[in-house]
Amino acid sequence: MRRNFWLGAAVAFFVWENIAITRWFAAHPSLREGLAHAWATLQQDGLIQLVWIDMTVFTLAALGWMWQDATARHVSRLHRTAWLLATVIFGCPGLLIYIAFRSNYRQADHSSPSPTRTVQ
Prior knowledge:
Helices cover 76% and strands 0% of the residues.
C-alpha cells in the first residue's frame, strides 16, 4: 500500500513535469528565447529567486539524506550514485521512487552494542 502511494505520487509528478515543460516550450518560439525569458524573469522577480533558492536547499538536503540513508542500508556506491543522479535529472519522481523502494535494502543492525575502547 505505502509503496503504491509513493509510486503513484512519482508518476503524478513526472506527468505534471512533462505537461509543464511541453507548455513552456509551446509558449516560446525557440529554446534560446525561452531561456532568455526565464533568465530575465529570475533576475527581476524576487519571489522567483526565493523559490529557486528554496528548491536548491531542499534538493541538497534531500540528496544528502538519500546518500546517508542508502549508506546506512549498505547500498553499493554505484547504486547510491545512480539514485542521486536519477533525483537530479528527474527531480521529485527520483526521490519518491527511492522512498518507495528503500525498504528493499537491509537496514544496518544497531541491536548489538558497539565495542568500547578503554583508555589505559
